[in-house]
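If you are new to this repository, start here. Below is one unmodified record pulled from the training split, so you can see the exact layout before writing a loader.
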Amino acid sequence: MNPRVKSVSTSSDYKLHLVFDNGERGVYDCSDLLDFGVFREFKSLDYFHQAHLGLGTVVWPHEQDICPDTLYLDSMKE
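And here is the target side for that same chain:
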C-alpha cells in the first residue's frame, strides 16, 4: 500500500503541496483536471483552496477527492 496524505496545502497555480505519512513530500498538479467533470469547480480558486484531509487523501466540500495512490505516484517528489 502506498503512503497516505498527512497534510496538504494549495497554491494559486492549482498545485497541491503534500506531506505523506512516510515523511516524503510531493507536489501534485491539478491543472489538468480543470475541464474534467466534477473537478470543473476547481476553476474557482476560492473553492480549490478549500482542499482538506479526509481518510488519508485530499477532499473538497462537494465530495470531490483524488485517489491517495494517484497523489503519491503522480506527484513530483521534493
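Two things worth knowing about this chain: Strands lie at 5-10, 15-20, 25-29, 52-54, 57-59, 65-66, 76-77. The first strand starts at residue 5 and ends at 10.
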